[in-house]
Amino acid sequence: MKNAFEDIYEVVRLIPYGKVSTYGEIAAYLGNKRAARMVGWAMCASHGDSSIPAHRVVNRNGLLSGKAFFGGNLMQELLEQEGIVVENNKIQNFKAHLWIPSKELL
DNA sequence: CTGTTGACTAGGC
DNA sequence: TGCCTAGCCAACA
């Protein structure tokens, strides 16, 4: 527990291979349910850290909202590389891949 | 200190 | 089903 950003990075790093999480769930795990935007913002600041699988973090619909930040379809390819089916910028069978820190880390 | 912006979310039409 | 609005919190000019 260093600062809010580090916490976010920590949780994102904990997302297992082939799994994804949402801004809202991460924010909820950190205690700020309303701070989903902050999570996304932290991701934006995490560009320099390659150890942070930001591609596993999507919005509540499983939509690759940050795809543009990865450049082209990189985010989608990374997810597909992990066995996640992505179509039209959206994760298919999203619920099956969803990883909720507040539940998994319980 | 005030206003704008953002990788969000929920509710309304 | 799809677009719009309001609420939310934090960083930045």
Structural features, described:
This protein has seven helices and four strands. The chain has a two-stranded parallel sheet. Strands 3-4 form a two-stranded antiparallel sheet. It is 46% helix and 8% strand. The chain is mainly alpha-helical and 106 residues long. The protein has a single domain, classed as Orthogonal Bundle (Arc Repressor Mutant, subunit A), CATH 1.10.10. The model has no long low-confidence stretch (mean pLDDT 90). It has helices at residues 4-14, 23-30, 36-45, 67-70, 74-81, 94-97, 101-104; strands at 21-22, 57-58, 86-87, 90-91.
Please tally the β strands and state the result.
Answer: 4
Give me the CATH architecture, please: Orthogonal Bundle
Mean pLDDT: 90
CATH topology: Arc Repressor Mutant, subunit A
Spatial ordering of strands, largest sheet: 1-2
SSE pattern, N- to C-terminal: HEHHEHHEEHH
Provide the β-strand percentage band: 5-15%
User: How many helices?
Assistant: 7
Low-confidence blocks of residues? none
Number of domain units: 1
CATH class: Mainly Alpha
- As a whole number of angstroms, the C-alpha radius of gyration is 12 Å
The major beta sheet can be summarized as:
2 strands, parallel
Write down the overall geometry. globular
- Calculate the terminal CA-CA distance, rounded to whole Å: 17 Å
